[in-house]
Amino acid sequence: MIGWREFQSMDLDERVKVLYEQGSFVTSIRYYAHKVNLYLLNNYYVEVFYNPKIDRIEKVTLLDSNHSRMNFYYDQIKLPNQILSH
Fold it and tell me: I need a surface site. Which of 23, 53, 58, 63 has the fewest CB within 10 A?
């Protein structure tokens, strides 16, 4: 089971590989120029920011449960009241 610190220390390509192999896809949203895929990886919610205009994943990061983007997720799915972020 991979921990968040280990995951965070990986480069972008390694993070993507781990998510696709070990993570569970939850949902996706549109956020400005990005399609953002939400994954669950060992009790952590992780966002993958994909820019379709340039066909590139630009960022893989821990879900920020205080961000206004959460409203887009709440409209689609039921997330736990407290999201494990550390």
Answer: 53
